[in-house]
Specification:
9 helices, six-stranded antiparallel sheet, Beta-Lactamase, three-stranded antiparallel sheet, alpha+beta, DNA-binding, 269 residues, homodimer
Chain lengths: 269, 269
DNA sequence: CTCGCATGTTTCAGTGAATGAAACTGACGT
DNA sequence: ACGTCAGTTTCATTCACTGAAACATGCGAG
């Protein structure tokens, strides 16, 4: 490796305004429809005039569009990122039908994720219809060590890769239940390997339970995982069935990815 | 319309840091491959430590990824914008083959654009192989009044829409040759209507000539345009042939777009 | 027609935060 | 072991971001 040591505090160097600008963009993205300046200001802890300036900046660069009646939405400049944002890798296409079946059967949010740069990236996310549900956009990042997706993947990764990942990202506590000791985490991975699926019992977010199962590529290496997540209260009773169903779904996906796939399905870590 | 009057100076309110952050993102995007912090700093007039902070901020939000050996590239969070960025409207799909034919025939950059919020948005862009060429990313924004794309579209738009656009965007001078008088611009549109294609003779960028032709939707309304652009020196000799070829290509696209239709023709008005 | 309200625009002065330079830390090659 | 290189961290300066409040404008009520 080149250069100095890796950073300690990522947050230490965050630039305030840029963070806010991203908040504005994500607000527009999540609104779905054009919104008024004031709506944005209201949803974020930012003064109206500041939102105004941020929107001006983003509009000038084409990242934001303004309609004639002063409604804002994401602009055309996003097109220039389509090669990165628009790619639907075969993994996603193959997985979605299976994910939908899981969602229909249990009514809880279903996620598809892969490992990238030592973190879990959500590629797809089918949301539960429950008003109290896990929800996030595709592209969201989560840590490996606390999530069911992460454990499902890590459990079937070579020891060396796991060690490198931990060395790089550590085992930060996200909730009181997060596993923070290296030994305990290794034991958790062993348990996961044995039963074939992973659990996250409020280790990433309090009161949220996830069940995750691994997806294997044509060469037998783990390339991703699917998880079902919901409030602990609802998940408790269906945990066993969900686990079995998730494992079955992932097995089916792995089979579908099969020997035919010449392509490297996804980038691993 | 609600709210106060429209803004005078868009630039007046630009937030410096946000602009820089966007510069960094676009640098990563345009690099194509992972790059070092220092490379980014070198390409932009920003100090190394500032680039570092911006990259930290963007990384924390998932918009930037860092490889284990400290190379930066765009991150997974772009996935969350795929619904906006990934859309390939039928217009693009149908147009690209025709555009490629133009590129092959004349060797100059071919653009596809539409009108959105009073500005020209580039949907697709096939780049000339010449080292001296027009080049920009899809999603780029340009003004209507100076570009061949803009004129080709505006010429076939209802007068009221044109007026509204000018009222909204004005006729700012981009080069000494830009048409800045409303009357002159109207005459230019009339000329465009008569001959069926538009020209931009260094009105957007000095020494750059563009030839643009309109694309009509199934209902006969103009929905976009294609242009061929290159240095004035090379364009001079092929202008006539390019114009004819562009008009033919657009006619073919218009036909392919819709069942109905004899489009409102070259000589109409 | 006038008034009042809602919304976006602009100004302003304080201050918090972004800035570049330079010192520092490790890693790697020699 | 040392020199070099690239990323990290610190720091004092000052710039520009900040929120509040005033302003402009459009709309609807009365």
């Amino acid at each position: 490796m080149r250069g100095g040591r890796l950073p300690r505090n990522l947050d230490r160097y965050a630039v305030h305004v840029v963070d806010r600008a991203l908040d504005v963009l994500e607000t527009l993205r999540d609104s779905g429809r054009p919104v008024r300046l004031q709506d944005v200001a209201q949803r974020l802890p930012i003064a109206k005039s500041s939102v105004f300036r941020l929107l001006c900046t983003l509009e000038r660069r084409g990242y934001v569009d303004r309609t004639p009646d002063n409604l804002y939405r994401l602009g055309a400049h996003w097109l220039s990122y389509r090669d990165l944002a628009g790619k639907h890798p075969p993994l996603t296409e193959i997985s979605v039908p299976h994910m939908r079946r899981l969602l229909d059967a249990y009514g809880e949010t279903v996620n598809l994720g892969v490992l990238r740069e030592g973190k879990i990236v959500y590629l797809e996310m089918l949301e539960s219809a429950h008003s109290f549900r896990m929800a996030a956009a595709a592209g969201t990042i989560s840590p490996v060590h606390s999530t069911a997706l992460g454990k499902a993947i890590a459990a079937f990764l070579p020891e060396s890769v796991i060690d490198a990942t931990i060395r790089r990202r550590g085992l930060p506590a996200l909730t009181p239940r997060t596993i923070t000791s290296r030994a305990a985490w290794k034991r958790e991975l062993a348990r996961t390997r044995v039963r074939g699926y992973a659990e996250d019992n409020g280790e990433t977010e309090p009161e949220v339970t996830c069940i995750g199962a691994p997806i294997f590529g044509f060469d037998g290496n783990v390339i991703g995982a699917i998880s079902v997540s919901g409030p602990a209260s609802r998940m408790r009773s269906i945990r066993q069935r969900v686990a079995r169903a998730a494992v079955d779904a992932c097995a089916a996906i792995s089979r579908a990815l099969g020997p035919a796939s010449e392509r490297r399905a996804q980038r691993g870590g």
